[in-house]
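$ ./design --mode recover --in tokens.txt
reading tokens...
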């Protein structure tokens, strides 16, 4: 059930990216592959039902304050952020080109392809490139399910 929520969230994020667009490596030797994955990964592209999400589409989304990124932190903690909604989880390097991500108890694999981290779900994909997450991307965005923090 939870895995379907994560899959649905990724597919919905990709579908939204495509809709908004219409409107506007090598492994390490010695067995420690964490360095291949650790860091911040920004959305760099993807496909949804055969439609390509390109750099211009992503720029248009980001200009509207809509960011998609993945953080793979030292020690195995992870965050995936879809338009300001964050899910915390974990990650483990499976081998030099595959990482297993776990969010809300469900696991899925992402692979390194041409320097990008690729998450594929039901024929659709999101691609992420290593890069710095802009400060405005990490600002908290609240929806009706999140309580506002009291002002100091």
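writing sequence...
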């Amino acid at each position: 059930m939870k895995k379907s929520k994560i899959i649905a969230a990724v597919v919905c994020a990709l579908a939204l990216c495509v809709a908004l667009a219409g409107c506007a490596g090598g492994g390490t030797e010695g067995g420690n592959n964490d360095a291949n994955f650790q860091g911040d990964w920004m959305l760099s592209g993807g496909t949804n039902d055969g439609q390509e999400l390109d750099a211009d589409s992503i720029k248009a989304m980001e200009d509207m304050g809509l960011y998609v990124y993945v953080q793979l932190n030292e020690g195995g903690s992870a965050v995936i952020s879809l338009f300001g909604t964050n899910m915390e989880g974990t990650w483990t390097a499976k081998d030099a080109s595959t990482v297993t991500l776990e969010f809300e108890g469900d696991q899925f694999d992402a692979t390194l392809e041409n320097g990008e981290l690729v998450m594929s779900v039901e024929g659709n994909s999101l691609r992420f490139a290593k890069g710095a997450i802009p400060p405005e991307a990490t600002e908290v965005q609240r929806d009706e399910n999140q309580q506002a923090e009291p002002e100091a």
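exit 0
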